[in-house]
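Continuing the batch. This is chain 6 of the set; chains 1 through 5 are on the previous pages. Same settings as before, nothing changed between runs. Recording input and output for traceability.
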Amino acid sequence: MAAAAGVIVALGIGAGAYAFTASNTVPASNAGAGAGAVTGYTVTNLHYTLDTTTPANIDSLTFTIAPAVPNSGSGKVVISAALSTGGPTNYTCTTDATNGTTVTCATVSPQLTAALLTGVTVVAAQ
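Output for chain 6:
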């Protein structure tokens, strides 16, 4: 009789525990993975515009990039100017509104100088 009472108590506890765990609701969700090719850009026709008053200062860089980078949305071009002392200094660039292949980077804040410039790295993304 004591064994039967123990079984009844155990069944009662089990049913109570089930009642608490059976009330969960989980919404539907998505998960996935994918792959895509990442290709680089080609930069050509790099041109330095010198300051007319102080020609040792570089006021901007202009170059052609392919493929085109959109001038709005997620498109972005940044150059990193490597300097012989200090730096590197990053400058945000703009692309032309017509076709997105001509890029202009103002380099006056801080002022880029020809004497310190040792290299330019272009980082672009769509």
